[in-house]
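Hey,

Quick one before I head out. I ran the complex with flavin-adenine dinucleotide overnight. Inputs first:
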Amino acid sequence: MDNPISDTCGWIALAGNYRSHPTFKGVETTDWAIIGGGFTGLAAARRIAKLDPNARIILIEGKRVGQGATGRNSGFVVANESPGHAALSSASGRADYAALNALDHAGVAAVKQLVQSHKIDCQWEDTGSIHAATSAKNFDKLRHHAQAFADLGINATLLDQAALQKRLGTDHYKLGVLSTGGALVQPAALAKGLADNLPAQVEIYENSPVLKLAEDGGAAVLTLKDGTVRANRVIVGVNAFMPRLGLQTDRVFPLALTASLTRPLSKPEEQAIGHAASWGVLSPQSLGATMRLTKDRRILIRNTAEYRPAGIDLARLVQSRDIHYQGLQKRFPWLARDAVEYTWSGNICVSANAKPVFGKLSDNIFAAGCYNASGVARGTIMGRLIIDLAMDAPSALLDTVNSLAKPGWIPPRPFFDIAARIRMGFERAKGKSER
Ligand SMILES: Cc1cc2nc3c(=O)[nH]c(=O)nc-3n(C[C@H](O)[C@H](O)[C@H](O)COP(=O)(O)OP(=O)(O)OC[C@H]3O[C@@H](n4cnc5c(N)ncnc54)[C@H](O)[C@@H]3O)c2cc1C
């Protein structure tokens, strides 16, 4: 028997009550407006308050703060993203990978510092990262991961099937790489803690989607349903929704991911998993499964990604849950179907060459986003750095992010829709064994 399905994100449901904020009404003038209350927007707001304690800062969120992808992700605070083929096959690819890796490590440190200084109760665990595969065709990739990490001075250890079985409680994976630097977290609890601990100077509005963003006479103007904000500077932190605001339409696109979380394991299930300590496994194969055993003894799986700009409806979510359950069964055959308690969807932002958006878009408008599925750490550090760029506060890390290649061009819709569906089908077929 299945549990009823409702697109309720398990992390958000389990994180407890979120502080609520008013909707925006009226006409206001401000030094800064931030659009989007995810990791990027929250980090940007915090940074402005630090650098300019007298500035007026208005943060506007279309739905609820921290409840977009920020609260709905898999909770890997990624330090060592999979180096794709492009990242390893040329000198510029390797330099870009090294730059992103440096940013990600700085991002993990930034998130950890916030968790510690604000005592955010979010199940933070310094676990490092495991990339693992079951199919022999991915073993070379894993060895390349280990080499790429080692080249950057990161400790990386290959794990064989027996070592993985002992750690994870499943013999599904045949080869893995354990690398240092990453962490695991309950993402909604983290987001809630980050929002609740923003400086009082940040005025937050929720359920207030910005409908239009334009420039007018030296300021940016945000149009909302019930009002207008005129801002000296705007930070766009809406990630996958940039194209809906008319931004980066030929550079980025959304992918819808879905995930499932089980109820806590029962005593017999704990025995079956060998009382393993909590862990997270990433796939070296694009569209392979992301898996976790959480600190509160639940299993998470995310093994679906689709190009569906109109979003995921409940019928599609039911199909996703079936795919999640198949993935769970491959790894934990003893797990009953009704153990799946929550299934939900969320959007990531992707570019053709996996490069983020970062920079000044026009006189008064700056944007950071598009981190693929690595936005917990990257969003936090890039949200901070976009303010350093806007306020002309140089640093080595700002040079690093500025050194990155920009997102590649993508064709206009509907051509892009056709190409994206074909490509996703191809990637899904390629990644089937790792789902
Ligand atoms: C299922 C899933 C699993 C993932 N797993 C991981 C993981 O394990 N590790 C990891 O690092 N990353 C992961 N990611 C990616 C990560 O969640 C994102 O990269 C990250 O949340 C990006 O943060 P952000 O603040 O830039 O954008 P978002 O979190 O998307 O926040 C943008 C906010 O802007 C708001 N908004 C949009 N349009 C408007 C508008 N017009 N007006 C006002 N507000 C608007 C949205 O409501 C949203 O709250 C995952 C994502 C998903 C969906």
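The chain has 13 helices and 18 strands.

Talk tomorrow,
K.
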